[in-house]
Design brief:
single chain; alpha/beta; Rossmann fold; six-stranded parallel β-sheet; six-stranded mixed β-sheet; 11 helices; 12 strands
Length: 318
């Protein structure tokens, strides 16, 4: 073998060794990172509300805390159980189920994998390996009701729920109570869509209410609610967004939004996992005090200083 061939062979061996070291180093770095898997709610990404907010919180945790995360959507996994099981098999430190509709399947998977830690958002589980996170939606909806009552000219408000279930009933109850705390004679029309993913249905329900002199609308209905916002703008009445700041979907109509800070909850859970190696167990409830609930900035309508003070006073009371 010539000197030239020997040199070439040695160079090849060195490259292979260095490549192997580099690969091992990369794998080690990835393996040491906190990994979170999330099964998104029924509509998934693009709902401009609940799932998008949770996804944003995990993106922030990735960028600021260096975590890794993966996700599943119902339209691809077909069942929550399948999506959650896939996330368990990916060796995620935490597997998150987003939304009350995920609870049944998440508990099935949690029983099969008792060593895996899960987080359930928007419902409460008794299983030891499931941390339940809920929000005081009635507090935020109460404030939305106060804002709506201070904004209406007709004395008629509208509420559209995605489905007639206890969680969404909390939104309705808070909204009605907040409005009537300002004006006991105020009227609130209520409709349940039975669908969180149909913007056209949301628009139709809103149009019907507007025809009956409703001039401020509020929805807890995911993408169905986005249709309501756009219809409110088209008909030149006012609306209140939900979950995230939805002003940019109907800038001439959205006075404020009831912020259900799912993104904050996701980020805080990721931070605790990074800092402590675990998350709280049991039931964690987040309201205004815990920064889980808030109102987006007031826009569109000019509020007097007295009206602004009234809103802030109610926030402090809650």
């Amino acid at each position: 073998m010539t000197t030239k061939n020997v040199a070439a062979m040695l160079m090849t061996i060195i490259i292979i060794i260095l490549s192997g070291c580099s690969q091992a180093e990369t794998t080690g770095t990835v393996d040491n990172k906190v990994k979170i898997g999330i099964m998104l709610s029924d509509v998934g990404l693009g709902d401009q509300s609940f799932s998008d907010s949770a996804f944003y919180g995990l993106e922030r945790a990735r960028d600021e805390l260096g975590i890794l995360f993966d996700y599943r959507e119902l339209k691809k996994s077909k069942t929550y159980e399948k999506g959650l099981t896939e996330l368990v098999h990916e060796n995620n430190d935490i597997v998150v189920g987003l939304g009350f509709m995920v609870q049944e399947d998440l508990e099935k998977v949690a029983k099969k994998f008792p060593e895996q830690q899960f987080i359930l958002i928007d419902a409460v589980s008794d299983l030891k390996n499931v941390t339940s996170i809920t929000f005081k939606e009635d507090q935020g909806s109460f404030l939305a009701g106060v804002v709506a009552a201070l904004s209406t000219k007709t004395g008629k408000l509208g509420f559209i729920g995605g489905d007639d279930v206890p969680l969404i009933n909390k939104f309705e109850k808070g909204f009605v109570e907040g409005a009537q705390a300002v004006n006991p004679d105020i009227n609130v029309a209520v409709q349940y869509a039975g669908d969180f993913g149909n913007d056209q249905l949301g628009a139709n329900l809103a149009r019907e209410m507007i025809t009956n002199d409703v001039d401020v609308l509020y929805a807890a209905a995911g993408f169905t609610g986005v249709g309501m916002l756009k219809e409110a703008q088209a008909k030149k009445v006012m609306a209140i967004g939900v979950d995230s700041d939805q002003y940019f979907y109907a800038e001439k109509a959205v006075i404020t939004s009831m912020l259900k800070n799912v993104d904050v909850a996701m980020y805080q859970m990721a931070k605790q996992l990074v800092d402590n190696g675990n998350v709280p167990t049991g039931h964690v409830e987040l309201g205004i005090k815990e920064n889980g609930i808030d109102l987006a900035p007031l826009r569109v309508k000019q509020f007097t200083d007295e009206e602004k003070k009234q809103i802030e006073d109610w926030k402090k009371k809650l």
